[in-house]
Design a protein that fits this description.
By secondary structure, the chain is mainly alpha-helical. It has two domains: 61 residues, no CATH class; 354 residues, Na+/H+ antiporter like fold (Up-down Bundle). Helix content is 77%, strand content 1%. It is built from 18 helices and two strands. The protein has a two-stranded antiparallel sheet. Strand 1 and strand 2 form a beta hairpin.
């Protein structure tokens, strides 16, 4: 298949799945698409038993593109920008300390808690995983890739929960920023794995972390400021030009980030927040107006919904090789790791909120809602696929564990989140 044919198949499946979910399943879009993607992968496997050529055709689809590159370099910047311009920036700025502490402490704590727990689990003879050969750094890499929540899935769920503006902004903001921090932690650990722990110094780790985080934030702020000046100059008169400007900037940030080793994820989020501002008008009746016209927000909402649908279909296709080689002996360790991930997420959220509640007010059970609303998605899978082959058979185990956690958070946590909020 060429690129046009592949895009046609993905868009057609996305359209059909969205209609089926809307008219028949009537589940939240994220959950409905995930269910249908799993049904698709299972259906392909069943048909593959009868017609092996069909199975090879389906698996060849995933071999024609690098899912991790496609998501991290192409889809994620668009999805995160769309998410950033939908957040209430004024509420976010009021609560920036809370959001940054939740995102940073939560990711770092979960990385080490899950990584240490997994390292202990694979060393236990009763699980039969001692021969896998996962090192402590390998386990920390799993902790880093599973720590960040999926802002696309989280934002889609939060918008339908009728939460207060403050709580909704805290959940959305934490989810947007912990992605960037999670990717930076993952890349730092990955460099330790590739170069060898003995060749890594505290200074090099600090320099890498600072370059990724500070560089990404500054680049995003600079591009956001430039974009804001451009759309203010246009003054919402030519909305098609505003769309063109935002599209070009979203594509430009990852390109510059790769050149200077900045975090493209943080850069795109910062740029989106800059552009998602109100600007003063000359004594207008309302006093302020949006920097960009409503047409721009509708366009990016369309991009968000379309790419989100395609993302879950790709996840379904990527899971086919995992299901082909799945062994029932993995079930117990998957369940234990899911428990470990949820508990680590809970502690990573409860501790900052407990400290911050000394001076700030939080709605009752905010920590529980943020914990259970920590859905994982495409980013975790993309990072798992991006692991080096030097991990050996341990990479297959990490992929299986990643899919297990992603499916649990989206299907179980996603379906029960509304009841927990009530």
């Amino acid at each position: 298949m060429n690129l046009l044919e592949l895009s046609t198949v993905l868009l057609l499946l996305a359209s059909v799945f969205s209609i089926i979910n809307l008219r028949i399943l009537k589940l939240p879009q994220t959950i409905g698409l995930m269910v249908l993607a799993i049904v698709l992968s299972l259906g392909v496997l069943v048909i593959g038993l009868i017609a092996p050529d069909f199975l090879s055709l389906a698996t060849s689809l995933t071999q024609q593109f690098d899912f991790s590159v496609l998501l991290i370099d192409v889809m994620l910047p668009f999805l995160l920008f769309a998410g950033a311009i939908s957040v209430n920036v004024h509420e976010l700025l009021k609560d920036k300390v809370t959001i940054l502490l939740l995102a940073s402490f939560g990711v770092v704590f979960s990385t080490f808690a899950v990584g240490t727990g997994l390292h202990w689990l694979v060393s236990q003879p009763f699980l039969g995983m001692t021969s896998v050969g996962l090192t402590y750094v390998d386990c920390l890499l799993f902790g880093a890739l599973i720590a960040p929540t999926d802002p696309i899935a989280v934002l889609a769920m939060v918008k339908k929960m009728n939460l207060s503006t403050v709580t909704e902004t805290r959940i959305a903001g934490e989810s947007l920023f912990n992605d960037g921090i999670g990717v930076v932690v993952f890349l730092t650990l990955l460099s330790m794995k590739i170069e060898g722990v003995e060749n890594i110094t505290a200074q090099s780790v600090t320099a890498l972390f600072a370059t990724e985080v500070i560089g990404g934030i500054l680049l995003g702020a600079a591009m956001g400021y430039l974009g804001l000046k451009l759309v203010k100059y246009i003054e919402n008169e030519h909305v098609e030009l505003e769309v063109l400007i935002t599209l070009s900037l979203v594509l430009l940030v990852p390109v510059i980030s790769h050149m200077f080793h900045f975090s493209a994820v943080l850069g795109v989020v910062m740029m989106g927040l800059f552009l998602n501002q109100n600007i003063d008008t000359d004594k207008d009746a309302e006093g302020v107006q949006k920097a960009m016209g409503d047409y721009v927000y509708k366009f990016w909402h369309l991009i968000d919904e379309t790419l989100n649908a395609i993302l879950f279909i790709l996840i379904g296709l990527e899971i086919i090789p995992i299901l082909q080689n799945f062994d029932l002996s993995y079930v117990l360790i998957i369940l234990l790791v899911i428990f470990l991930v949820v508990i680590s997420r809970g502690i990573g959220v409860f501790v900052p909120i407990k400290i911050l509640s000394i001076k700030k007010s939080f709605e009752k059970n905010t920590a529980l809602i943020i914990t259970w609303g920590g859905l994982r998605g495409g980013l975790s899978i993309a990072l798992a696929l991006n692991l080096p082959d030097s991990i050996g058979t341990g990479k297959d185990l990490i992929l299986i564990l990643t899919y297990g956690v992603v499916l649990f958070t989206i299907l179980v946590q996603g379906l029960t989140l509304k009841k927990i909020v009530k």
